[in-house]
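queue> holo job accepted (PMT)
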Amino acid sequence: MRRMDFANRTVVLGVGGGIAAYKACEVARLIVKGRGKVRVAMTPAATKFVGPLTFQAISGAPVLVDLFDGQAEPSYGHLQLAREADLFLVAPATADLIARLRAGMGNDAVTTTALAVTCPVLIAPAMNTRMWKNPAVQENLAALIVRGWNVVGPGAGVLADGDVGEGRLAEPNEIATAASRLLGNLDLSGRRVVVTAGPTREPIDPVRFISNPSSGKMGYALAAVAARRGAEVVLVSGPTALADPAGCRTIRVETAEEMARAVEEVAGGMDLFIGAAAVSDYRPTTSAPHKVKKGAGDETLQLTRTPDILAGLGTRFGGKPDAPVLVGFAAETEEVIAHAREKLKGKRCDLVVANKVGGSGSGVGFGSDSNRVALVSSTELAEIEGPKERVAEAIVDWILPVLDARRPRAQPLK
Ligand code: PMT
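queue> job finished
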């Protein structure tokens, strides 16, 4: 897998003392599989969960646990690891380890290495959900983020102690992908991506319009993630309160017809289209030039269909062997998966990202910072929940192999 390429890179893995320590073995294995070098430092507590010999076997190198190891210390073992590291990854990071990292302590092999590294740093927290929500843990992590630490996870689900909620160590694949990306592995480099985001506004008169509550957050997250992963991104956005995402060309539009025209202008050489915009399906047939005055009784508004941007691209490209990958969203209030499957077929997309909308206070969908979606393709159904950035990463992860298979690159990634 190209995005897991760690060739010529050294990842120093700091393992904390939690039940999820066994998953760090799989992370180490993925890095080695990606042709990377792994060096491991463990806290004494971590060795209660997994023996250093296991990591030694996977990494093919001695594991640093004891700061007073007479064999390792003549070469300043704790500093040697920091010197070698292209990336320092702490997984799992327990509440205690996060607190000690934040405090700048150096009382074991992991914290001492952390103090000495100058490379990018990535932390994968894992703990009970109530501990995770504790303000002390959140404050400690926030302080590390301010200092430049990158965070992957935690995920949500059933935890080792039976509690359900956030706190599970991110999946090894997710951690390795985040690590690979921090090492500058730009898996979308050379790709042209068009994303639509936000609502459209269909004017009734100069001061009134038909619209919907889309904030643009989901589409902007997708555009930002694609740009960070090396793509040349054009974001076609309806009216939002959001700033243009870094590294993207943003085209601002108001109506569905303007959005359709803007997409048409940039669709030519694209490799991937993601339609996250909530495009109005109808517009008032006529838009009054001046503010409409209220009459004595009820009024009837005549509506006309707007162009369906995604369906238009499906008709133009769908089924062609080198077609751009087409990804649509489905915002549904009921029968979410069934409607998503209809859209997948009807609009000839490769993937439909289905989300339930409409329930007030659900914390997902329109306007919120998080989303809960199902990825619906002709062969798969996968569910993802989390901050919109993380959902966007997972959507791009899904797209990548489809894109690479359909439009293989001439040049391998550096
Ligand atoms: O913007 P946020 O506040 O972050 O909220 C995110 C979101 C809920 C808006 C987003 O996740 C989402 O679901 N976007 C699609 C909403 C929608 O309009 O769904 P739809 O089922 O009506 O349309 C299906 C697909 O066709 C979508 O990809 C849409 O962009 C596209 N479409 C629809 C109509 C039209 N005229 N042209 C289109 O391209």
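queue> The first strand starts at residue 10 and ends at 15.
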